[in-house]
Design a protein that fits this description.
homodimer, mainly alpha, 10 helices, globular, DNA-binding
Chain lengths: 200, 200
DNA sequence: CGAATAGGTAATTGAATGATTACTAAGGTC
DNA sequence: GACCTTAGTAATCATTCAATTACCTATTCG
């Protein structure tokens, strides 16, 4: 009920931009590129819809920036894990780090929505390239064999799917859902379950 | 240029319905639920847009019917493989059968788009249930261990992702894409490559 | 045959939504 | 303290799209 002149918060464009990117990541992650509206994103970021559009030019460019940011965070995270040593358990540690990225709401789901848009001439090209960047990292920097990469990414896609499906909503009510989550998220299960609270 | 009275093809509603479902599967698979329009689907099926809407009531119901049809085919396919014997190589045979479903254009991709819509109250509930039906089949009918199911489904989701990304478009131009496809699709690689021709 | 039924379409509408335009106010700087 | 740049909004436009309405015309069947 905004009673008195709360000093309307003005930010430097750079900070506001990051704020909008975060909000957009969440909304795109939940509804996908076509399902999300610039107005939803604007409201989530606490700014007006025209401002969102003007900051990024088009909705498509905003989505591309969201994807780029997500990819950057993903690789940055993996590089961080790698920097802590490349032992036997590197795959496990990176897997755990991957699941931890779920706390950055919508980040992995936005990527997943991007992956499903391969036939879009612009977004498809960018997401293909992004996927291959990750593949290249795992092969050349992390030193995985093709087979190790396959298993690692496959499990990542399974995690994405279960999160996208909100399978955790059924954790308490459906034993199969519980088993499914337990086997797919060896550790960090509690993290996924915790996310249930924060959504909706 | 329709010169003379080609006898305008009239079908029994049942056949037409299946035709529209096929077309819708392709369009939803390519563009997703929000990205696809009923007009695109109508054109792909060779009927008018209002007729598509009237046949299914709403776009949402059409998508639900597409998902149900896809799930039915998937389980039917798996049951067919299982009926041919449950040896050591059951997982491999079912994996091959799964990839062969890619010839049913958009079927697996429509499911994947559905999986990304877990937060939709209607579609989410249906896709969660569908996913769990498959999980249940693999555990209880196919006799997989939880770990076997995890690996099987994870690989399926990887296949979906690579197809959704149209990674095969880069097969000839990017060695990493080639390696990636080769390792993820042990057999039936030629099938995925053949699909490149038929699209666009 | 004649009429009912089934398989459709053309025209239109109303709402949603991305984008544009025109404006306003804050705050640093000289 | 005028000034100009930066951060933002309100109003509105143009399109797209799902849905509705009002028809039309083959085919079936008594």
């Amino acid at each position: 009920m905004r009673t008195e002149a709360e000093p309307i918060p003005r930010m430097r464009a750079e900070d506001r931009r990051e704020l909008v990117l975060e909000a957009a990541t969440g909304v795109f992650g939940e509804f996908g590129y076509f399902g999300a509206t610039t107005d939803q994103i604007a409201k989530a970021a606490g700014v007006s819809q025209p401002y969102v559009v003007r900051m990024f030019g088009t909705k498509e460019q905003l989505f591309l920036d969201v994807l780029q940011r997500a990819l950057d965070r993903l690789l940055e995270t993996f590089r961080g894990v790698l920097a802590q040593g490349a032992g036997e358990d590197l795959g496990l540690r990176m897997g755990t780090a991957y699941v931890e990225l779920l706390t950055d709401r919508g980040l992995l789901l936005s990527l997943m929505h991007g992956f499903a848009m391969g036939s879009d001439p612009v977004i498809g090209a960018v997401t293909r390239d992004g996927f291959l960047q990750v593949y290249k990292f795992l092969r050349e920097e992390a030193g995985f064999t093709p087979e190790q990469v396959r298993m690692f990414i496959a499990n990542g896609m399974l995690v994405n799917t279960l999160v996208g499906l909100r399978m955790s909503d059924e954790y308490d009510t459906n034993p199969l859902a519980k088993e499914c989550l337990c086997v797919a998220l060896p550790e960090k299960l509690e993290l996924v379950l915790a996310l249930r609270e924060s959504q909706r």
